[in-house]
Amino acid sequence: MNRTLNRTSTSKKFKHSIVCTSLHFSEQDFAKGAIKNLKEYQLKKNVAPDTSHVIAGSGRRTLNILHGITQGCWILSPKWISDSYEADCWLAEEDYEMHKDFPAAKVSRLNHQRYGKSHCGRLFAKVPRIYLAEVTSPPHEELMKLIISCGGQLTNAVRKAGLAIGFINCRRHENLKIISEKWILDTITNGRLMALDKYLITIPYQRATSPDY
């Protein structure tokens, strides 16, 4: 790559943003410079309402990947940025899409393109009202956003829930199904409701100290 990356700041307002995840430091540095040079997009740390592309350095599932899927973003390999930089223009994304690692990404993207920004995921639309434990992994707030963005309904009262996610004291709710947070993540990644059986939690329950989303 012969051209020098221009890292000068710009005051231009961008309509869309790019988020990078699971990149090595050198890849992050190159991506930052290339995005500034090619313009059109702003680089952000986390997926936001204006994010249109998520660049994934590996098949590792991160919160940015999950939010990107629910938002209908392009989930692309870093080669899209390097090839675009060499071509001195943003290339078509299709050949760089990571649909093998994240099966639901393409379907979600096409749905959002077809129905517009108002399209709301319906993955959890037919799931009974969900009670979300106060302490979860990923964090409660992040899980809540994912569930709502996929059409799920939440309740703060265990007695009103048809399903509970995360560790709760279930002695008073013996008939309530309690499942691990991984069910939410796997369902979003695959774009279909996963069977509950292998996600059921029984007491005592020990959450992994260093979870892999």
Description:
- The protein is elongated.
- The chain contains 6 helices and 8 strands, in the order E-H-E-E-H-E-H-H-E-H-E-E-E-H.
- It is of the alpha/beta class and 213 residues long.
- 29% of the residues lie in helices and 14% in strands.
- Helix 2 links the parallel strand 3 (51-56) and strand 4.
How do the strands of the widest beta sheet line up side by side?
2-1-3-4
Largest sheet: 4 strands, parallel
Terminal CA distance reads 34 Å
CATH architecture of the largest domain: 3-Layer(aba) Sandwich
Number of domains: 2
Number of strands: 8
- Looking at the structure, the CATH topology of the largest domain is Rossmann fold
List strands and helices in order, with pairings:
Layout: E1 16-21, H1 25-38, E2 41-44, E3 51-56, H2 63-70, E4 74-76, H3 79-87, H4 104-115, E5 130-132, H5 140-149, E6 154-155, E7 163-165, E8 178-179, H6 182-190
Parallel strand pairs: 1-2, 1-3, 3-4, 5-6, 5-7, 7-8
Outline of the structure:
This protein is of the alpha/beta class and 213 residues long.
Search tags:
single chain; 213 residues; alpha/beta; Rossmann fold; 2 domains; four-stranded parallel sheet; 8 strands
